[in-house]
Amino acid sequence: MNLLLDTHVVLWWLADDPTLADDIKEKLDHDPNVYLSPATVWEVAIKQAIGKLQEPADLPERIRDSGFRELHITSEHTITAGRLPPIHRDPFDRLLIAQAQCADLTLVTRDAAIIKYDVATLAV
Protein backbone atom coordinates (compact mmCIF):
# COMPACT_ATOMS: atom_id res chain seq x y z
CA MET A 1 0.00 0.00 0.00
CA ASN A 2 1.42 3.38 -1.04
CA LEU A 3 0.77 6.05 1.56
CA LEU A 4 0.57 9.85 1.59
CA LEU A 5 0.90 11.45 5.01
CA ASP A 6 -1.35 14.19 6.34
CA THR A 7 0.52 16.97 8.13
CA HIS A 8 -0.53 15.98 11.64
CA VAL A 9 0.67 12.42 11.02
CA VAL A 10 4.14 13.66 10.05
CA LEU A 11 4.26 15.88 13.14
CA TRP A 12 3.24 12.97 15.40
CA TRP A 13 5.82 10.72 13.74
CA LEU A 14 8.61 13.27 14.22
CA ALA A 15 7.66 13.74 17.88
CA ASP A 16 7.32 9.97 18.45
CA ASP A 17 3.83 10.79 19.70
CA PRO A 18 1.95 7.85 21.24
CA THR A 19 -1.11 8.94 19.25
CA LEU A 20 0.34 6.88 16.40
CA ALA A 21 0.01 3.16 16.94
CA ASP A 22 3.23 1.17 16.95
CA ASP A 23 2.33 -0.69 13.75
CA ILE A 24 1.84 2.64 11.93
CA LYS A 25 5.15 3.99 13.27
CA GLU A 26 6.88 0.81 12.14
CA LYS A 27 5.41 1.11 8.64
CA LEU A 28 6.44 4.76 8.39
CA ASP A 29 9.94 3.95 9.62
CA HIS A 30 10.61 1.22 7.09
CA ASP A 31 8.29 1.35 4.09
CA PRO A 32 9.84 2.98 1.01
CA ASN A 33 6.36 3.70 -0.40
CA VAL A 34 5.48 6.46 2.06
CA TYR A 35 5.10 9.87 0.45
CA LEU A 36 5.23 13.43 1.71
CA SER A 37 3.80 16.40 -0.14
CA PRO A 38 5.68 19.71 -0.30
CA ALA A 39 2.31 21.17 0.71
CA THR A 40 2.93 19.73 4.18
CA VAL A 41 6.25 21.55 4.49
CA TRP A 42 4.60 24.72 3.22
CA GLU A 43 1.70 24.39 5.67
CA VAL A 44 4.05 24.00 8.63
CA ALA A 45 6.18 26.96 7.53
CA ILE A 46 3.07 29.15 7.25
CA LYS A 47 1.70 28.00 10.61
CA GLN A 48 5.03 28.81 12.25
CA ALA A 49 5.10 32.25 10.58
CA ILE A 50 1.65 33.13 11.95
CA GLY A 51 2.34 31.67 15.40
CA LYS A 52 0.14 28.56 15.28
CA LEU A 53 3.19 26.28 15.59
CA GLN A 54 6.28 27.11 17.59
CA GLU A 55 9.43 25.09 18.09
CA PRO A 56 11.65 23.85 16.72
CA ALA A 57 12.46 26.72 14.39
CA ASP A 58 13.75 24.28 11.77
CA LEU A 59 10.60 22.13 11.77
CA PRO A 60 9.93 22.58 8.03
CA GLU A 61 13.48 21.44 7.29
CA ARG A 62 13.11 18.47 9.62
CA ILE A 63 9.95 17.45 7.79
CA ARG A 64 11.63 17.92 4.40
CA ASP A 65 14.60 15.83 5.55
CA SER A 66 12.50 13.10 7.22
CA GLY A 67 13.34 10.53 4.55
CA PHE A 68 9.87 10.12 3.08
CA ARG A 69 9.53 10.17 -0.70
CA GLU A 70 8.56 13.55 -2.07
CA LEU A 71 5.38 13.63 -4.13
CA HIS A 72 5.75 16.56 -6.48
CA ILE A 73 2.79 18.85 -6.97
CA THR A 74 1.51 18.91 -10.54
CA SER A 75 -1.04 20.97 -12.43
CA GLU A 76 -3.30 17.91 -12.44
CA HIS A 77 -3.21 17.91 -8.64
CA THR A 78 -4.12 21.59 -8.41
CA ILE A 79 -6.96 21.30 -10.92
CA THR A 80 -8.35 18.27 -9.09
CA ALA A 81 -8.07 20.09 -5.74
CA GLY A 82 -9.90 23.09 -7.14
CA ARG A 83 -12.74 20.89 -8.39
CA LEU A 84 -13.30 18.93 -5.19
CA PRO A 85 -16.68 19.36 -3.51
CA PRO A 86 -16.52 22.00 -0.76
CA ILE A 87 -16.61 19.51 2.12
CA HIS A 88 -13.24 20.63 3.45
CA ARG A 89 -12.16 24.25 3.24
CA ASP A 90 -8.49 23.78 4.15
CA PRO A 91 -6.50 24.26 0.92
CA PHE A 92 -3.61 22.12 2.15
CA ASP A 93 -5.89 19.19 2.91
CA ARG A 94 -7.68 19.64 -0.39
CA LEU A 95 -4.35 19.41 -2.19
CA LEU A 96 -3.40 16.26 -0.27
CA ILE A 97 -6.75 14.70 -1.16
CA ALA A 98 -6.20 15.53 -4.83
CA GLN A 99 -2.67 14.17 -4.80
CA ALA A 100 -3.83 10.93 -3.21
CA GLN A 101 -6.62 10.59 -5.77
CA CYS A 102 -4.42 11.34 -8.78
CA ALA A 103 -1.49 9.15 -7.67
CA ASP A 104 -3.66 6.30 -6.31
CA LEU A 105 -2.28 6.71 -2.79
CA THR A 106 -3.87 6.03 0.58
CA LEU A 107 -4.03 9.20 2.68
CA VAL A 108 -3.01 8.59 6.30
CA THR A 109 -5.09 10.93 8.45
CA ARG A 110 -7.29 11.45 11.46
CA ASP A 111 -9.26 14.27 9.79
CA ALA A 112 -12.95 13.35 9.73
CA ALA A 113 -13.68 15.74 6.85
CA ILE A 114 -11.15 14.04 4.59
CA ILE A 115 -12.78 10.64 4.86
CA LYS A 116 -15.97 12.13 3.37
CA TYR A 117 -14.18 12.41 0.01
CA ASP A 118 -13.76 9.68 -2.57
CA VAL A 119 -10.20 8.93 -1.51
CA ALA A 120 -8.59 5.91 0.07
CA THR A 121 -7.70 6.63 3.69
CA LEU A 122 -5.96 4.93 6.56
CA ALA A 123 -7.37 6.27 9.82
CA VAL A 124 -4.91 6.78 12.67
From TrEMBL:
Highest taxon in the source lineage: Bacteria
Family matches, as InterPro entries: PIN-like_dom_sf, PIN_dom, PIN_Sll0205, TA_system_RNase
A molecular-function term among this protein's GO annotations: metal ion binding
Claim: Hydrolase is one of the keywords in the record: yes
Record flagged with keyword Ribonucleoprotein: no
PIN domain segment(s): 4-118
UniProt keyword list: Hydrolase, Magnesium, Metal-binding, Nuclease
Name the UniProt record assigns to this protein: Twitching motility protein PilT
